[in-house]
Each structure stands twice: as C-alpha cells, then as structure tokens.
Prior knowledge:
It is a single chain. The protein is of the alpha+beta class. 27% of the residues lie in helices and 23% in strands. β14 (226-229) and β15 (237-242) form a beta hairpin. The two termini are 30 Å apart. The relative contact order is 0.21.
Amino acid sequence: xxGICQYIEKGVVTRMKLKKFATAGAVMAVSALTLAACGSKxxxxxxxxxxxxxxxxxxxxxxxxxxxxxxxxxxxxNTMEGLYRLGKDSKVEPGLAKKTHVSDDGLTYTFDxxxxxxxxxxxxxxxxxxxxxxxxxDPKTGSQYAYxxxxxxxANDIMDGKKKTSELGIKADGxxxxxxxxxxxxPYFKLLMGFPVFFPQNxxxxxxxxxxxxxxxxxMVYNGPFKLTKxxxxxxxxxxxxxNKYWDKKNVKLDAINFKVNKSNSTSYNLYKTxxxxxxxLSSEQAKQLKNDKEFLTRSAASTFYFQYNQTQKRFQNKxxxxxxxxxxxxxxxxxxxxxxxxxxxxxxxxxxxxxxxGKDFADQAYVKEGVEYNKAEAKKLWQEGLKExxxxxxxxxxxxxxxxxxxxxxxxxxxxxxxxxGDSVNVHVxxxxxxxxxxxxxxxxxxxxxxxxxxxxxxxxxxxxxxxSDNSQNDGEWKNADYDKLIQASKTTDAGNTDKxxxxxxxxxxxxxxxxxxxPLYQQSTAWMVKSKVKGIIYNSSGASxxxxxxxxxE
Length: 556
C-alpha cells in the first residue's frame, strides 16, 4: 500500500504494524496487488458504471489510525481523502487542501481547506484533521503507524508519554485553515499527506461507535469518492458506492465497485471468464498460459517478502542458524518456477527502483550477496555449527504464512528447500492461516518463522528500514542492533539535511540488517493480472496505497 503497509497477494501477504509506536512501509502488515491512469468521458450508460473487482484477502480494518495492511489502505484510499490525493506515478494532486503555503525554513505548512462534507452530511473542518492526528499519535490508540508522524512537532514526546496530544504540531485556525509545525524538515512530507494515516476523522462518529469504529461499514462515515457498504467486518464481499457528498463527485464516473475475496486463483479466473469479475490476479501457471493475451498485464510493487525469525527464542538468536536457513533457499527457483508472475529475487529489504541518488539505485548500493544467496554447502556447514552452539541436534520449526494459493505454493517450496538442504536435522511444519490471523499471530510473536511482506508507503528507503529499529512495532521478530538504530536515527536528525550523508546512513543500515540476517529477504513482488479492456482510468502506484479508482470508468 504505499511503507504502506502489510501486503498480500494470491498466496503470500505483506503488512504494516506497532509495538512502541509503529512503522509503515505498503508496504504497507503487508497483502500485495495493484494497477494506471487515464481520464476521459465514458460513453457507457450510467447503469453500466459498475466495476467488479477481485480482492485477495478479507478486509481487516477501516480505522485509519489502526490499519496496517494493503487491503485496508486501498479501501481507505478510495473512501477517504486527505490534504492531497496521489495520482499516477505518485504525483501529488488536489485533495481537501486547495492552497498550501510553506514557510521559508520549511518547518511550517499552512493549508487552506475547501468546503466539504462527510457522507452523513456533517461539515468537514480543520478540526477533523487535528482530532485524527492527535488520536493516531496518542499511545492509548496503539497505532502501529504513529511512527510516521516523526518530525511533526512534539509527536515523539507524545508517543513516549512525555507530552499531551494537545501539544502536537497541528492546529485549526477556524474551520478551513490548518497549520502544521515540524521539528525538522521532512523531504517527503507532501507524499505523506496523501497516505491514509494522515486523513481526517469525524470525532463524533468515532466516539459514538467506540470499540466498534472501523469494524463494519455501518460504523463509518466517509469523505472520499466512494463510501463502503455491505461490509460486516468478517464477510468476503462488500461494495463501495459513489459518495454524493464528495467535493469532486462530478469527476467520479463509477456508481459502484463490488469487491469479492477469492483466495483461489482458479476460482477468480473462472469468475473473470464468465464476466463476473473485471480484474483478477493470476497464478504462475495461468500467467505462463495467458501472457500473450491482450488483457494480460504485470504490476510491479515496491514490496518485499522476507522471513522474520522469532528472536525471542534462543535458537534464532544464533546468527549461524539464521544464515543457514536463508542460504538453504534457492530464490531464483522460487521466483521463476513457483511464483512465475514477474517477481524478482530481492537484493535486500528495500525494493529495486524505489529510490536513487546520483543515478544509483539504493538496492544496488546496499546489496550484500551472502545475505540473499543460495549456498547449499555453506548452509549445511553453518547449520551444524549453529546446532552445536545452541546445544541441539535437531530442530522442529513452524513456518507461518497466509492461506492463499500462492502462499501455500511458496511455503511448500521453502519447506522442501530447507529440509532437502539441511537434511534430517530439521523438520519444517507449514502453517497457512487467514491473513488477519497471520497478522495477529505475527504481532503477538506466536511464530517460529513467518513469511512477512512490506510495501513502501512512500518512495524513500526509510519506509522500509524504519521497520527494524529496536522499538518498532513492525519488528515482529524483535531483532535488535545498536549500530543499526544509530544509523537510522542519524538519517532523521544530524544528517537529515545532507542528502549524501543521509543516503549513506541508510545504505550502511541495510547492509548491517542483511549481513546480520535480522531478516532474510526473499523476493520483490510483481503480480500478473487479467483486466477487462473495457475498464479504463485505474491508477496504480507501486508504493503507498496502491489503487486509486476515483477516475475509473467502464467503456463498452
């Protein structure tokens, strides 16, 4: 979603989450899929302006202070709106801010807001932004994305319980002027404003719903192009209908989007062939068979799938054990033969193509070969040495992942690779569970190994790297490294204003993460899709909330 977020594809999932405050990256804990834009008038009748869309996992939450995954953020991105919207190629477009003034020192942003309403008719004002931001950074809310407010005046002290939420650097000057004060410059500030965590919330609705807020469509109000209906909180289908209270409703062509969760690629493709779905992701075998079809396309995402080792367990605190498990996996076979959807072997945590400095890609500069390579002989050697050091002769390991077709294929492959490479001294037990269950178990540390995924929330390496600082809530495996923490902190403070120094801090941090096997990067996700040629104007971005359906229309 955009670091946005937990991610899921038909088979494996990505996400975002919290322990102290939180981290994004989405990539968003992560679910991953996506689509690109045009806008023109539709010649179709209004009655035909309905999009039937496949979704890969159940919708966990519509509470933008608590959401952590790609599915939730995509829904929020289409039913809510912030100061800006992100258009094609993450270009900042007008949202509720009709005018922006930035102070000479770059630390004060003043937004003039357009007049608009919530879907229930309530007036939307600057106070709705103040309430939303204060609610998200309040430690009592437990937002896993609160960390993204780092840089907004007093945000960190509020998250640490040292200051009151009322001291956050945001204030309403009347109904339609909003002022944000920063502690330090944030180079990607405007991109953040297009991410759902920074959208407004209706205080009365939140408080009236209480603990039920965000758990079903009837407890929500919306200010975006669409409003959610028919979502009970646990069902596998729901509808987004056009929001007639939206300020720019004249440019919204669709009357409705019907979302249907299909965890099986064969099921969703059959629905696509019978015109019951207008878009569906494909399995690797389907992709191979359909790659020459005119409706075939591939969507690359700024999302990375990786192992997290539960390092609260003594055995996974051993670096050699972690290295052996990583080196046992032939990632090229995983991407080419198992996934077959255009996904590529990861060079590290940060996805290739996300960010460049002086023309050099971050992923290339931070590349640590031994952290992502397949080396059977070295894996065996390290495994035996590691077993001896932890005082074991054999290990039983539970591997946690999602319950989609692709996830099952991936975990079966990883299971086979580890057992065939390391021999009789290891047994891997696969646990494929629903996306929401996987997220909950990951957050609670209820796993040995888990295949996690993250989608960048914005186009900067920090959207990934923030996740694995010692106190980040997305750091489910609880890996800790003081040097890593110092480099990330320097990139945000002493070196924040120096592009080259900040870049070097982040490069060195990723090298430490991969060399130490804090995680084991597996692959960068792409997804093969079939999309009906009659569907026009979908905007897909590889980072942040992926889908923007505002200008989508059907042209028969």
